[in-house]
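Let us practice reading a record.
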Amino acid sequence: MSSPLADALRPDKLSDVVGQHHLIDEGAPLRRIIEGGNIPNLIFYGPSGVGKTTIAKIIASKTGRLLRKLNGTTCSTADLREIFSETDTLSGRNGILLYLDEIQYLNKKQQQTLLQYIEDGSITLIASTTENPYFYIYSAILSRCTVFEFKPLDTSDVLKAVNRAFIKAKEIYKKDFSIDEGVSLLISQRCAGDVRRALNMVEVLTLSADEHLTLKLAQSVAVSAPVRYDKDADEHYDILSAFQKSMRGSDENAALFYLARLLEAGDLISACRRLMVTACEDVGLAYPSIIPIVKSACDMALQLGLPEARIPLADAVILICTSPKSNSGIEAIDSAIADIRAGRGQSIPSHLMDGHYEGAKKLGHSIGYLYPHAYNGWIEQQYLPDDIKDRVYYQFKNNKMEQAALSYRRLQRGK
């Protein structure tokens, strides 16, 4: 049985690896570690098909250690113990290099069993994961490893691998055919930075081609770029974070791009939720009318459903991005919450307490309260508890709406 083209083309030296320039270019940290030969415990974090396994295998080939491989989706505690037992054998005398793919699938107890062998150096761990290691890997393991983040590949990097793959595929499958201009670029653009997916497309196209590989055939195989998105994974939160930060930063082009990613993944609910919170948190009192406007746009989107929902949501995104910004509201409530959590302000002033029941006056409740409407809308009196009576939670920001409110307040209070 022949191996997949992606495996046949797997590089065996760093100079043939595409992408990950921040890690393996000359002078980059991971390259320096590999060339130094003293390999520490490593965790490779990033999406599928970007070179984690390839680089781990290159590292393994450069060491004199016994290489063992496990996959977290299938390995058991017994599999781990079998590898641990080899540390006392002749073959394992120089130490064992354990490549553990998808380490996030090991439970906490399984991860803990690695600690002793990592600490005494009898096992060097190179683990890979598609999930954020700071969420899914036991902290004691993390503290003993260096984490390197792998990025999705740029189209230009994937294109190098695709062109190389077509040459190799002709050799492997003993076929000679011409290729339409634009085929390699199409595959490189539609693999979403996953070189393994790109090479799988090359393999399918090569096997299905006769004398001529047309752009039309390539389009039928590379239908559309997959959307990297999982509501239970950290990438979900990365996209939402970028979405809100782009709106907060008044960049409507970036915000529309991240909205499009959410909508292409079908996540209408998260898009609406983040729009509404941004309207309140980041525009807020600088343009308070935006809050019901954005709420109405989100309601409309949820009633319309996709694809029409994109229209009111795009309007809402652009409105938020082009509006003045103020976070005075969230700063104010967070300051008040901080006092509550610190145990301050426990005793409400007696003149503010409820006086609408028999016996309230005997307790001194509501006595001395001044009704503001009897004093042209405002009269000075204490509202906060005694221990925090001089607290100022809300600070007027320098925008038209809040400055107008501040001017009104000063006029009302004769200041």
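A brief commentary: The radius of gyration is 31 Å.
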